[in-house]
Structure formats: C-alpha cells, structure tokens
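This section describes the prediction task in plain terms. A model, or a person checking by hand, is given the sequence of a single protein chain and must write out its three-dimensional structure as a string of tokens. No templates, partner chains or ligands are provided. The sample shown here is typical of the held-out split.
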Amino acid sequence: MCKRVCVLVLLVVLTSCGYRAEMATEESSVLFYQGLKMFYLGEFPQAREYFKRTVSRDRKNDAAFYYLAQIAGYAGQWEESGEYLDKALKLDPGNYWYRLQQAKLAIASGKEEEAGSLYENLWLDYPAKTELLYDLIGLYMNGRKTDKALKLLDTLEAREGVTESGLLLRFNLMMETDKEAAQTLLRAYADHTPSPRVLSVLGDLAGGDGEIDKAGDYYRRALEADPAFMPAIFGIAETYRMKRQFDLFFENINIFLAYPDVDVRMKTDYLKQILDTRGFVATFQPQVDTLFLSARSAHKTDSTLAYMYGGYLIQTEKKAEALEVIKDNLRYYPNDFHAWYQTLGVIYYLKEWPLLCEYGSRALEIFPDNPDFSSLYGLGLWQTGQLDQAIARFERILSLLKKKDMTNKVQTMALLGDLYHEKGDWERSFRMYDEVLRLDRENLAVLNNYAYYLSLREEELEKALEMSQVTIDKEPKNPTYLDTYAWILHKLGRSAEARNIFRQALAYGGKESAEILDHYGDVLNALNEPLMAIVYWQQAYDIEPRQDILEKIETNKKNGQ
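The expected answer:
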C-alpha cells in the first residue's frame, strides 16, 4: 500500500510539473527519479546532484530545472534559483507551478512590485484558483495598497461568501484607516457568531487599550465556545498577571506552555521575556521552574528550549541540574553541531574542566579538527594541568588555520604564549607574543601579559613599562592593567609612583583581586609602611589563602614586635 501511494504522489508531481518523459533518455529518467526521491526525503544536497546530472544529459527536462530552483531557493540563493526557474519557464512558459514559484521567488527576493504583477497575471489566467486572491491580498496589505486589497476581498466574498478568515482580513485592512469601524465589525460578528478566534482578537484589542476586565470577559467568552483555545488561555493568563492574580496566572500559562500544538518558538520567546524580568523570577522562582517543566513536557527534544532552561538553571545556581539538561539534549542530537556547541559552552561556563576534556574529546571524534571544539578541548586540557597536550592541541589548531583567518590566528598564538610561559618556556612564550604584536600591535591582553612576565624576570623593564602604558592609555579603569603598570614601576624602584597607581586600581575594582592586594602590600612594605602592608596582605589572604602571603604577614608581625 505504501509503495502504491508513493508512486501515485510522484506521478501527480510529474504531471503538474510538465515533465515530458518521452524527451528523456532512460539514464536521465533514472537520475531524475532518484533526485525526486531525495528531494521529498529532505536530502537536498543529494537531490541537487541528481538533478544537475539529469539536466547535463537532458537539457529539455523542465521539471529538473524547477526542482533545482526550489533547492536553491531553500538555501536563500535567490539569483541561482531565478536562473534555474527561467530555464524551466523557457521550456514550458505556461506551467502554473513554475509561474507561481516565480512570483514567490520575487517576494523572497524583496521584489514585491514584480511579485504583484506576476500574481495578477496568474489570476487572470487562472481565475478559479482562489488561493491566488489570498496571496495578492497579502501583497497589497504589505504594500499598504488598502483599496486594492479591499476590492479583491469583495471579489473573494462574492465568490465564497463571508468567512471568518475573510472577516479578519477585512478587519486588518480597516484598522489602517478606521479603527473604530474595524472593531465594530468584529463585535457585530461576535454577537451572533461565538467565534473563539474573533473573541480573542477583541480581547487582545481591549487589553492593548488597558481595559483589562473587558479583555478578560472576551477571553472567557472565547473559552466558553472552545475551552482548549490556546490564544484565549494565553490572553486570560496575561490579564491575571496584569491584575497581580498570580495563582490564576500560573495556572493558565502552564496550560498554554504544556500544550504541544502551540509553536515552541512562541513559548521560548515568552519565557525569555519572563527571564528578562529578574525581580519576577526572584519572587516566583518555584513557579517559574514549573513554567519550564510545562514547556519541556510538550517539547522534550527541542534544543533551543533545553539550552534556555539550562541557562535558567545556571542563573538560579542549579549547576548540576543545568548540566543534566544540556547532556540530555545531546542524547537527542548526538551528531548535531549546535547541540555539541551548546553543551561544551555550558561546561566551559561552569568551569567543569575534566568534563570539558571528556566532552571535547567526544565532540572531536564527530567533528575532527573543528577549531571551536579544539579550542575548548585545549582549554580543558590546560585547566587540568595537561600542558603538553594543550600545547599540542593549540599548535595543531594554528597549523590548520588559513592565512585570512587572522583573528583566530592571533588568539591562538596568544594562548600558546600563555601556555609556554606556564610551562616555563620563556623563549617560546615571548616569541609567540612578539608574533602576535607584529600582527596586532595593540593587542591589550598580550601587551599586559608580556609586560608582566618581563617584570617577573626583571628583564627589559623599560620595554615592559612602554607596553603596559599602551594598555592603561586604552583602558585607564582596568584594574588588571593598572596593577601590571604599577608593579613594573615598583620593579624599576619607583614605588611611590606605583602606590598612586595601585590606589586607582583598588578604586576600579582591584579590592576583589588577591593578586592586586598582595602587590599593593609589597609596595607599601617597600615604602616602610609595614602595618598598612599587613592590612592589605590580610585582605589578599582572605580572598586566596596562599602560604607565601601568610609568611609575609607573620614576618612583618614579628619584626613589628
């Protein structure tokens, strides 16, 4: 039975497209049927190859050109689509489907005037095809040609009578010129026909005008007509939210979110609005949890929703649950690039370094040498102390990068500079930094790190100071850059100047950094202010309890006695 149905579908398609089997060679016919099969399976790259091979053997196969036009259109390649469509139309100029596709292509390409003319000509030739009138009305509405749209609507109603869809079209057109008359039209219809759709539109209008109670009445009437009409459920939920009747709001919005036939994108957009209202989330966190669970119950395999839910769980300090949600999403899409990207991104954000190594390695088995996944994997190796493996990974990335990919090249070399420094290979580290600065003279991160590492070795301090100066000129309120500059001044014996710079660093957020506080303590101690040095060392120790800081505190306390 299935095979017979499939054959019937293919025959209908072929007939409608005007394929002339008698003109095709046996070989091209086989290729064409293979292309058609791939097309309706959604395997467009394969279908494209079959259709191209078809027309290379049979230049009069108009249907193959038509499908090539369709495939190019799906990919947004409007020019190529138009070229293929022109070839199909040249072979069969009167074909309805080819002409319709030509009109739709004009819309997709932003050529609405041309599309209007094409549709008008089609309608003249095919007056029985009512769907053309709907398309034309839509075009006229978009082009604000209200009078033309209304005339067409009159024609449509004369042919089919007044329908709910036609009524709403007329309402939308009238809203452009006479809002009161438009609303009166809807109210009159709703008085004798309890349409949930029309009543919900009236509810939306009332709500938009701030008439919350009236909006609620319309939504309730809509639900009396159809208790499962989702736009009305959503609308009444919003009225409860605006009236701060939150129990009723959550009850109704959960019904809406749990309904599987509502577009998941509409739900994710709504949930994003909820999340953007931080005070609301903080007040109603358990209830917001249920909103996500409701949506997830209807769309368990939606990757966007899963990622949003994971982000929410991170925001609410439920990191372990966030990881499970993201990993679960990966089980649904084990070979999907975006699912892997989202998973690795969340793991990186949570700083779960061993897990980043595990999942980074798995991702690279599916997407070998992908630069994003390689970089994340390399960072995981670095943070878990596997320096040699991390260096090898980033060197591999560097070797694969194309010359024109300068941004990633510079970033990779900068990372390698840091890695080589951490390994103790100063020569290679500085060589990498020099190469970065040759390509990007104002790379602030590299200028800062290079300058600081030179100061630690107490080498080329004037060069280090010059590089550091660039960073604070560009970002004078960056506490890290200020710390580096002040530390170099201290190494140069200019501790009094350094103190003033450190004060700026502390004022711009440096009090949160153990390193900056420790450095400032060292400078104060060098300026014979041991008691104040202890104060700042103690603050540094409270943030990061390091043995070297503790020893300085204890030594100064003994000396003070």
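For orientation: Residues 1-24 have pLDDT under 50 and may be disordered.
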